[in-house]
Design brief:
The chain is about 40% helix and about 25% strand. It has a domain of about 100 residues: Sirohaem synthase, central domain (Double Stranded RNA Binding Domain). Helix 2 crosses helix 3.
Length: about 150
C-alpha cells in the first residue's frame, strides 16, 4: 500500500513539473509574438493598438462574409469582444485585450471546441488588414532641424 502511494506521489510530481514547463514555453512563445493554439483558442500578440486590431478584425469578418452579432459585439480602450456566426451557424468569438498602448492580445474561438483551420484563416485576414492599414497610414517625417535665429549686430 505504501509503495503504491509513493509511486502515485512521484507520478503526480512528475506531471506537475511537466505541465509547468509547458506553460512556461507557451508564455514565452506568446511574448515573442508567435501564434499558439491551445484548448480550442488561437492566441496571438500583435504590435498594434487595440483600436487598429478591432478595426482589422471587423473588416476581416466583413471580408469573410461572417454575420456579426451587433448586440454581442463591444469595445472600449482596454478590451473588445466581436461575436459572429458562420454559414454553419457556429459562433465565432474574437477577444481583444490591450496589453500596452501599442500591443494587443487576440484570442479567437470557433464553436464550442474550436476549429484551428478556421481560426487561423480569420487571424491571417486580420494580420493582412493590419499590414495594409499600416502601409496606408503615412509615417510622420521628422521635423527639419531648426535654424539658429540671426543675432542682432552681426
Amino acid at each position: 500500500m505504501r509503495t503504491q502511494l509513493v509511486c502515485l506521489v512521484i507520478l503526480l510530481a512528475g506531471l506537475m513539473v511537466h505541465s509547468s514547463g509547458c506553460l512556461a514555453v507557451a508564455a514565452g512563445a506568446g511574448a515573442a509574438g508567435t501564434v499558439a493554439y491551445m484548448r480550442g483558442d488561437l492566441e496571438a500578440d500583435e504590435p498594434y493598438a487595440i483600436d487598429a486590431v478591432y478595426t482589422a478584425a471587423r473588416e476581416a469578418m466583413k471580408t469573410l462574409r461572417l454575420s456579426v452579432m451587433e448586440g454581442k459585439t463591444e469595445n472600449d480602450a482596454l478590451a473588445a469582444v466581436l461575436v459572429a456566426r458562420d454559414a454553419e451557424d457556429k459562433r465565432i468569438t474574437i477577444r481583444l485585450k490591450a496589453s500596452t498602448e501599442e500591443t494587443t492580445k487576440i484570442s479567437i474561438r470557433i464553436g464550442t471546441f474550436g476549429d484551428q483551420a478556421k481560426a487561423q484563416r480569420i487571424y491571417n485576414r486580420i494580420r493582412e488588414n493590419l499590414k495594409t492599414a499600416a502601409q496606408a497610414s503615412p509615417t510622420p517625417e521628422p521635423a527639419p532641424p531648426e535654424k539658429p535665429a540671426p543675432q542682432a549686430g552681426t
